[in-house]
Design goal:
By secondary structure, this protein is α/β, with parallel strands linked by helices. It has 13 helices and 12 strands. Bound molecules: pyridoxal-5'-phosphate.
């Protein structure tokens, strides 16, 4: 064999891109992890029971392939959102849905658009597919430029609502305006809707161009299980079914997802605790005179101040100070629109107390 040149074998699209960089997942213990918006409490005990039951005494069920369509999970998702089961789709995390939507609906002539800032995985997925990616900046104060959205000519518009990384939630009228005016598919990424006051799934039956995605990672304490879903018109679901892996959710994930969505009481209590901690943290930032976006999620994006000023250096300085105290937040160094702030996931009351204590130390210059 001649000298093997791997680089020349990589597809055109992939040779030009770099992969997504997720938030840090430290190996060692002792961290206060407030960087990837995981649920600060364990999942419902019913989830643990369901997994144990599925594994059984000797794991015999694991010999067998799971339901290819994740049938029971789809039924449960549909029930949860009050839709017929034909409108639901199950996936290996909602990132899997995002990927499948791009695989099915984008190419070098069919582009993807989103608002800037939004979830930074979208451009990576678009590049893999060789699709053009359009970023539409917000006007001042997170106002949406509806004219630009309407005229961007993308095939699919990704709308992160509530928005990440700002945490800001747009009212349902805004979703409906975009979905009704945009001449293409609209994907509303609702990773954080369990912490918001509504879900756009109520619009799915009315609009054949709407896809709403959800995940058990943020609102159900199951980021480690990789369970996501989509709700859309059955014709869209049929297209997604064509491109997904034949068994895209394993057995344990399927039963865990069903159990989680069935236990509304447990999650209502835990989310209430998170929302109360969120309010207290917003009040803490008020007391410091720091700017933040009003949050509809389980995180807050804030801009720290030193000597009355905020800047990228100041944000980075606080991020690194906290990191040295083993308190991990998320800092987006390379994203111009948000590099002067930091994203903080809402943790347990004890975790938030440690965070506040460290911030006060930093602001006193110690
Ligand atoms: C975390 C997150 C996701 C991914 O969720 P998974 O189900 O864990 O893949 C999707 N969209 C946004 C906006 C997120 O923050």
């Amino acid at each position: 064999m001649k000298k093997f040149n791997l680089k020349s074998k990589i597809s055109n699209a992939v040779s030009k891109m770099s992969g997504y960089v997720p938030g840090e997942q430290p190996d060692s213990s002792g961290w206060i992890k407030l960087n990837t918006n995981e649920f600060p409490y364990p999942p419902s005990p019913k989830v643990v029971e369901a997994i144990a039951k599925e594994v059984g005494a000797n794991g015999a069920s694991l010999r067998l392939y799971p339901s290819p369509t994740s049938a029971k999970l789809r039924e449960q998702v549909a029930k949860y959102y009050n839709l017929p089961k034909e409108y639901a789709f199950g996936a290996n995390g909602s990132d899997d849905v995002l990927n499948l939507v791009i695989r099915a609906f984008a190419d070098d002539k069919k582009s993807i658009a989103t608002l800037d800032p939004s979830y930074s995985l979208y451009p990576v997925l678009a590049k893999i597919q060789g699709a053009n990616f359009i970023k539409i900046p917000f006007k001042k104060n997170l106002e949406i430029d509806f004219e630009k959205v309407k005229n961007c000519k993308a095939n699919v518009f990704f709308f992160t609502n509530p928005n990440a990384p700002t945490g800001f939630g747009f009212p349902i009228e805004v979703v409906e305006k975009i979905v009704s005016e945009f001449d293409g598919l609209v994907l509303v990424d609702e990773a954080y809707s369990p912490f918001a006051s509504y879900s756009a799934t109520s619009l799915v039956k009315k609009y054949p161009n709407l896809i709403v995605t959800g995940t058990s990672s943020k609102g159900w304490g199951l980021a480690g299980m990789r369970i996501g879903w989509a709700m859309a018109n059955p014709e869209i679901i049929e297209v997604l079914d064509r491109v997904r892996d034949s068994y895209n959710l394993d057995r344990l994930a399927q039963v865990a997802g069903v159990a989680a969505l069935s236990d509304k009481k447990y999650y209502a209590e835990k989310r209430k605790e998170i929302l109360s901690e969120r309010t207290k943290t917003e009040e803490f930032f008020d007391s410091l005179g720091w700017q933040y976006y009003k949050s509809s999620t389980n995180f807050i994006f804030f801009r720290p101040k030193r000597d009355g000023k905020s800047s990228a250096e100041i944000a980075k300085n606080l991020f690194e100070f906290l990191r040295s105290k083993k308190i991990l937040l998320r800092y987006f160094a390379s994203e111009k629109s948000v590099c002067d702030g930091i994203r903080l996931s809402i943790g347990t009351p004890a975790q938030m107390a440690s965070f506040k204590k460290a911030v006060l130390k930093w602001s006193k210059g110690k």
